[in-house]
Specification:
Order of helices and strands: HHEEHEEEEEEHEE
Shape: globular
Number of strands: 10
Helix content: 10-25%
Strand order of the largest sheet: 6-7-8-10-9
Number of helices: 4
CATH superfamily: Nucleic acid-binding proteins
CATH class: Mainly Beta
Number of domains: 1
Length: 208
């Protein structure tokens, strides 16, 4: 497979490692009962197949996100666990959901949930992975997952969890990922200019 032209930027991006407090955590839960932006009852009904358990504040949260059959379903579960108008998680931040253009005002180190179509992806020599994603509006995002988080997902799968990564480097599949925005420091797939870059903490690929 031909290397992504942005591969040389991936190592530098991973040096901007997320805080250790986030290691192994998706930062779910929080005082979501006060949210005005929770998924609708119809949306929640569609993902009743996903298991829930009491969260930190006693409110039920989706505790096995790898069960999601699609990136759409994962997005609904994430919005229930981490609604965009409530601070929560290891960084005590509001989650920013990105499916179209990344907001120009988005601060570096913001927690994000991004979903897009895989244009190209490949493993890194370090053991991690790098992807170029196309968003709904045609925009582009680079997503980089370090070997540390890849190993954590593999360990969870070996312990009996459902596979999160099935065909992660197949163009046309959806990739949805929770991570930390690192700024416009990724290199575009064309090799011309920079695009938003996300350091991935948890990722999943699905047909849609």
């Amino acid at each position: 497979m031909r290397q992504l032209p942005l591969l040389r930027f991936a190592g530098a991006a991973l040096l901007l490692a997320v805080a250790p407090a986030a290691c192994g955590k998706l930062g779910l839960g929080g005082h979501s009962t006060y949210s005005k932006e929770l998924p609708s009852p119809q949306q929640l009904k569609a993902i009743r197949y996903m298991s829930q358990a009491p969260g930190p504040d006693g409110r039920k949260v989706f505790n096995h996100l790898e069960q999601a059959k699609s990136c759409r379903d994962l997005g609904i579960a994430m919005r229930w666990d981490r609604p965009p108008d409530v601070r929560a998680g290891p960084f005590d931040q509001k989650m920013v959901y990105v499916s179209s253009q990344v907001p120009a005002s988005l601060p570096k180190d913001s927690e994000v949930f991004v979903s897009g179509v895989i244009r190209r992806g490949q493993p890194l020599p370090s053991g991690g992975s790098v992807w170029s994603l196309r968003l709904k509006d045609g925009g582009e995002v680079q997503a980089v997952e370090s070997a540390q988080y890849t190993e954590k997902q593999e360990e969870a799968q070996q312990a009996g969890g459902k596979a999160t990564m099935i065909h992660p480097f197949t163009p046309g599949r959806m990739l949805c990922a929770y991570g930390v925005y690192q700024g416009d420091i990724g290199l575009a797939l064309s090799g011309d200019g920079h695009v938003p870059l996300v350091s991935v903490l948890f990722a999943m690929d699905r047909v849609r």
